[in-house]
Design a protein that fits this description.
Helix content is 32%, strand content 20%. With 666 residues, the chain is of the alpha+beta class. A hairpin with a 2-residue loop joins strand 17 and strand 18. The longest helix has 19 residues, at 505-523.
Length: 666
């Protein structure tokens, strides 16, 4: 019987290893940047063409290599970091497995020039698919210059699985940002198709963050540090009001190595408890310095996942560090214990309006501070019993307070009784009945819509839109239009034959807006509202590339924008369904949400964009609705494609039957 087990050739073994190490061009950029940092480079230049498909060039001024080291660096498991098994638990450098260059050489054409500063000549090596084509001595600058050409040229199937240039470039920028943040003392530059994307000079971490993300981050950066014998936490956190819906600006570094750790992210979010809007994530760049013997980084090929031997302690220290920074920089609201707000005199107002020296008084004098008793706490024998009801007003508007020249406790009661008419000036002229309130054309009541006479342009268009689900139509028909109640600006209650139907107001708007946005993208007929004053928005390089890639779809929705310098757009128009919002925030937040949804869900562009914009726009519709608006909302909801659920599968309506209601009283 013949033996069937044999050793794989090195070229095939390298290609197998490349399947884990080199997943896309961004993987190559990450490995080569880490090698440059390990080589003690002070300046690193990254040049990309066609999102890394044609060329990835890394130029550094590190220590360089000898001719023998240059040749050995392309062998499998060749490394200068490890000499014994004990070294695995003392690793502080980036690359250590010795698989990166060998794996890259197996699936690309490589040309490397390297020289040490003390050598007169350098070394040139050319490799194609693990085969060495040339090795010679040349004259070159100190450091290493690596050119990776035609990635996956010998593995066409892998090359076909690459995404579009904009998507691959976003991954490259992500890897570049992580390495640049971890090493602020090194200067980095990034070029794509001869266009400069980043030019980051060496400096402090705070300057690196501002140079990378924009000047707007200058005001939100707050230093965070906590030192213990076990672990040290340092870095910067953002203010709660600057938190964003998308989770794409959170960075953890353990011994200067970028990691992903949901457990530690939960600790940071816990430190912000009560200060963040629902679904928002704060900005942070946090470094964890710990003895390498307490962590295991050799559990994933990309080394972005690690294990701590005592995760609970790291969790507690991380939360304490962030919570301390939140308190030190007054990010959380605090109580002013020095202001005597419960006394008529001696309070903040009296202290701020006079700088005179305090006058010594006796306890029994009339100007001694007296506590104010609210009207509900006074007995029938109090002096207010004989006063008119109008003179017992306790709370007044800020406008009256300012008119009196002091705080609310110093205003005579007579002022509140005589000036109450000022509160209602101008109200009568603007009051209208709920039925007369102006309602947008897209959300008008069904009974107000008039049939349109068919013309040449409208013959093929449907006049009415009906639900595809018969039982939903029946429930909609049962709704009592006169008894639709709004609860806390969040829910609608409508009586039907079987009981009571509850509708989540925000989710209902999300479903309606989604259908309209998706129709605009599909039919390419989105309507744009021109801005009287164009708005300028500056994005991160990742979102800037995403906007360029989605320009056609964004235009179909109704956005009109032009490039204005590096990473900057000028917005000239927005979709009509989003008017009234902050245009810059709408555009930036939608792109950030798109990036998250695209990476998490397997959706086409129209689906992803419609979901993101509908979710973003529905936030502003938790407001008071008049009777006509409530009816119009229900009509539009039941005319949508799926009235029961949002695009993300969340319930929009629920029915409390008479039996369920009766069960609540048993």
């Amino acid at each position: 019987m013949l033996n069937v087990i044999q050793l794989l050739p090195d070229s095939i073994a390298n290609q197998i290893a490349a399947g884990e190490v080199v997943q896309r061009p961004a993987s190559v950029v990450k490995e080569l940047l880490e090698n440059s940092v390990d080589a003690k480079a002070k300046s690193v230049q990254v040049i990309i063409r066609e999102a890394g498909r044609n060329l990835i060039q890394i130029v550094d001024d590190g220590v360089g290599m000898t001719e023998t080291d240059a040749r050995m660096s392309f062998e499998r498991h060749a490394t200068s970091k490890i000499r014994s098994s004990d070294d695995l638990f003392r690793i502080r450098t980036m690359g250590f497995r010795g698989e990166a260059l060998a794996s890259i050489a197996a699936v690309a054409q490589i040309e490397m020039r390297t020289r040490r500063a003390e050598d007169e000549l350098g070394t040139l090596i050319r490799i194609e698919g693990s085969d060495i084509k040339a090795q010679e001595s040349i004259s070159c600058l100190p450091g290493t210059n690596l050119l990776i050409k035609n990635l996956f040229f010998n593995v066409p199937a892998r090359r076909n699985f690459l995404k579009s240039n904009s998507v691959e470039m976003r991954h490259i920028i992500d890897e570049f940002q992580r390495v640049a943040l971890a090493n602020p003392e090194v200067a980095f530059t990034l070029f794509h198709n001869d266009q400069e994307i980043y030019n980051l000079p060496a400096g402090k971490l705070s300057r690196r963050i501002i140079d990378m993300f924009g000047k707007s981050y200058r005001e939100q950066l707050n230093y965070c540090e906590e030192q213990t014998p076990y672990v040290t936490v340092r870095g910067y956190i953002g203010k709660p009001e600057s938190a964003k819906k998308a989770r794409n600006e959170q960075f953890f570094f353990v011994n200067n190595r970028y990691i992903k750790h949901n457990y530690l992210h939960h600790a940071v979010i816990g430190a912000y408890e009560g200060m963040l809007p629902e679904g928002s994530h704060p900005f942070y760049v946090l470094f964890i310095d710990i003895d390498p013997s307490h962590i295991d980084i050799n559990i994933h090929p990309t080394k972005t996942e690690i294990k701590f031997d005592d995760e609970r302690s790291v969790y507690a220290i991380m939360m304490a560090a962030v919570r301390k920074a939140v308190g030190v920089y007054n990010l959380a609201p605090s109580l002013d214990f020095e202001s005597d707000v419960n006394f008529l005199s001696g309070g903040r107002a009296s202290q701020s309006t006079t700088n005179k020296a305090p006058v010594e008084t006796k306890p029994n004098e009339s100007n001694n501070p007296r506590p104010i008793m609210p009207s509900w706490a006074m007995g029938s024998s109090q002096s207010t019993a004989g006063q008119p009801k109008a003179e017992r007003v306790t709370f007044r508007s800020d406008s009256l307070d300012r008119a009196a020249g002091g705080n609310s406790f110093d205003i005579p009661k007579k002022a509140s009784a005589t000036n109450w008419q000022a509160l209602f000036e101008g109200v009568k002229s603007t009051e209208t009945s709920p039925d007369e309130q102006k309602i947008g054309d897209w959300l008008g009541p069904a009974k107000e819509s008039q049939p349109i006479a068919p013309t040449d342009q409208t013959e093929s268009e449907a006049v009415t839109i009906r639900s595809r689900v018969n039982h939903i139509e029946e429930i909609s028909a049962e709704v009592d239009d006169e008894n639709i109640i709004q609860v806390q600006h969040r829910y609608l209650l409508a009586t039907i034959k079987s009981g009571v139907m509850l509708i989540d107001q925000k989710r209902a708007y999300e479903r309606i807006l989604y259908d309209q946005f998706h129709a605009a993208l599909t039919k390419r007929n989105g309507v744009s509202q021109q801005l009287l004053f164009p708005k300028t928005v500056t994005l991160t390089p990742v979102d800037f590339q995403l906007a360029l890639d989605l320009r056609e779809e964004l235009t179909s929705l109704g956005f009109q924008f032009d490039e204005l310098g590096q990473n900057t757009f000028v917005i000239r128009g927005v979709p009509t369904l989003t008017t009234g919002e902050n245009e810059e925030e709408l555009f930036a937040n939608m792109l950030a949400q798109l990036r998250v949804d695209t990476g998490r869900l397997k959706l086409d562009r129209a689906e992803s964009m419609s979901r993101s914009l509908a979710r973003r726009s529905a936030q502003r519709y938790t407001t008071r609705l008049g009777p006509a608006e409530r009816k119009a909302l229900i009509d539009q909801l039941f005319a949508s494609s799926n009235p029961s659920y949002t695009p993300a599968g969340e319930a929009v309506t629920t029915v409390l039957t008479l039996d369920k209601i009766a069960g609540l009283f048993r």
